[in-house]
Amino acid sequence: MVPEGRLRVKTLVMVCAMVVCANAGDLMLKRAMLQIGAVELSVTGLAQAFRMTVTSGTLWLGIFFLCGFMLSYMTVLSWADYSYVMPAGAFGYALLTFFAVVFLHEAVSARRWAGVMLICVGVLLVGQTKPRTTPASQQVLAA
Amino acid sequence: MMHVGLFLAFLILGSTGGEIAITRGMKAAGEPERLRPRELLRFLGKALCNGWFWAGVPLMALSFYALLVLLSWEPISFVIPASALSYVVGTFGAKYILGEDVSVARWVGVVLVCVGVALVALG
Fold first, then answer.
1. Rounded to whole angstroms, how far apart are CA atoms B23 and B4?
2. Rounded to a whole number, what is the distance in Å from the CA of B9 to chain A's nearest CA?
3. What span, in angstroms and rounded, lies between the C-alpha atoms of A24 and A100?
């Protein structure tokens, strides 16, 4: 049996890794799709978009970060609840806004700050609950 | 507009369904004892041998492709708030498919996160 304190700490570490990799990956994907342009909904359009996406270095860099996200996500899901990890990962949105203000000196609207506040309160509420409410690993399918 | 709704459904249901299947697979694979590269690789190997993992991958791929297409059509300030619905859909899945005990505090937290993500993305 893993003590709850240790369970919380290792869950927090993996959620932080998830947040960093997911944000970096999403930014790279958006950048790549802006370079590629709007995808046309036809066989040739989809085929052309596919060709352009597999040859885009920015997209592959995004995929690299998303693989890091996937690995940390898969690892944390092996012990923690999905309904605990999923909302906790949203903390990245709040973190991005904070970084945008501090490092990029971007102006942030009141609506966005309200969103950041809601995310922080929501993540804190979810964080108060037990990270695992189902039987420990390897007992799920045996049940 | 209908095709945007269709791809949004692919995005939300694909990601939620895929993540639930992968969660099931990861729980079956067993957690790594330590967060070290060798342990993580062994864990990854076990996970890759699990059927639930492979059931989740095509759903995640569908969701990923729907995200790419939506990002090429619509601004990110629409795509991300709309996809925030997956927090609520995913929590229903966690409760009714994975059998997790979703307390009132967790439900309130999930709804606040969902609304918060939508507000942040709307800017």
1. 28
2. 17
3. 14
Contacts of residue A122 in chain B, CB cutoff 8 Å? 108-114, 116
State how far the alpha carbon of A89 is from the alpha carbons of A38, A45, A104, B104, B118, in Å: 29, 34, 23, 19, 15
Residue in chain A nearest B57 by alpha carbon? A70
ipTM of the complex: 0.85
Choosing among A86, A95, A112, which should be mutated to test the B contact, i.e. which has the most B CBs within 10 A?
A86
Q: What's the pLDDT tens digit per position in B57-114? A: 999 999 989 998 998 888 877 787 788 889 899 999 999 999 999 999 999 999 999 9
Q: How many CB pairs under 8 A join A and B?
A: 177
What element of type H or E holds A65?
helix A57-77
Q: Does the pTM of the predicted model rise above 0.80?
A: no
Neighbours of A93 (CB within 10 A): 25
**With helix as H, strand as E and coil as C, how does B5-72 read?**
HHHHHHHHHHHHHHHHHHHHHHHHHCCCCCCCHHHHHHHHHHHHCCHHHHHHHHHHHHHHHHHHHHHH
Per-residue model confidence as pLDDT tens digits over A79-90: 999 999 988 888
Span between the terminal Cα atoms of chain A, in Å: 18
Which CA distances in Å does B101 have to A24, A94, B98, B104? 32, 26, 9, 10
Taking an 8 Å cut-off on Cβ atoms, the answer to whether B93 and A82 are in contact is yes
Chain A residues with CB inside 8 Å of B47's CB? 74, 78
